Amino acid sequence: MVSQYPDAPDSVHLTDYPEADEGLIDTELEASMAAVRTSVRLGHNLRKQHGIRVRQPLTELTVLTSDPVTRAAVESHAALIADELNVKEVRVRADETALVDLSAKPNFKALGPRLGPDVKAVAAGCAALGNEALAKVLGGESIEVAGHAVTADDLVIQRTPRDEVVVASDGPLSVALDTHVSEALAIEGVAREVVSHVQRLRREAGLDVTDRITLAWSSDDEAIVEAFARHAEMIAGEVLAEAITEGGDGDMAEVLEHRVVLRVATA
């Protein structure tokens, strides 16, 4: 057989690894996506730590950073972050004191060798620092504590969230996740769990991912009834249901703590 590419090597495994063209590397895009990945990772960690299922929608995630480049990156990819974390809105703030109270302890590894016995006075001064002073430090400024200049590297910043907000940090970037689940969000979470169960029934029935179905359901559980009443269109769109009807028999499923009978048939 004549090769379509006569100059091609016998095998890719016998060729040298190509050298990267560094001129094609978009460092700005890499930095932007690094900020997005960090925001998403911290958000998922908070969900896991506080036992909040990913399918449970939440109101908002606030990304806290004083770096204008990071702020711009998060703002331009806010929809992606919101989709990954299942939140209704992603906000960006430069001043995190609106959501958390800041406090500081001295970084003895950094201050001890430099200040010697004066480190005790600086430690006492650090305990008295308020949100305004610490916000300046986080913004890259130095402040005076007990007669010594102190920067962010000299302190261990602690964040105490307010209300039902939980916070996680990685370097200069922090995320604050609003964990309050309203009645409306809880019902939407039930609807999304219903979608998951219907998708499982589709797989068990051997349906192709593009096959259209009809979905029947039956339940006397108030949360299930509300989930179909409020989110039938979303459920239909996710599971490719041409029609959703109430009543009849089918497979009993437990959606969280709610029982529902579901039946899937090809349309």
**Largest sheet properties:** 4 strands, mixed
Distance between the termini: 48 Å
How many individual domains? 3
The percent range for helix content is 25-40%
Shape: flat
The spatial strand order of the largest sheet comes to 2-1-8-7
The total count of helices amounts to 8
CATH architecture designation of the largest domain: 2-Layer Sandwich
CATH topology (level 3) name of the largest domain: hypothetical protein PF0899 fold
Helices and strands, in order, run as HEHHEEHHHEEEEEHEHEEE
Classify the beta-strand content into a percent band.
25-35%
Please give the radius of gyration in angstroms.
27 Å
CATH class of the largest domain: Alpha Beta
Task: Work out the number of β strands.
Answer: 12
Average pLDDT rating: 90
- Secondary-structure content class: alpha+beta
Low-confidence stretches: none
Can you characterise this structure?
By secondary structure, the chain is α+β, with helices and mostly antiparallel strands. 39% of the residues lie in helices and 27% in strands. The protein is built from eight helices and twelve strands. The protein has helices at residues 27-49, 68-76, 78-85, 108-115, 119-127, 131-138, 183-204, 222-239; strands spanning 58-64, 87-93, 100-106, 143-145, 148-150, 155-161, 165-170, 173-178, 213-218, 241-246, 251-255, 258-266. The strands form four sheets. A four-stranded mixed beta sheet has the order 2-1-8-7, with helices on one face. It is flat and about 80 Å long. The two termini are 48 Å apart.
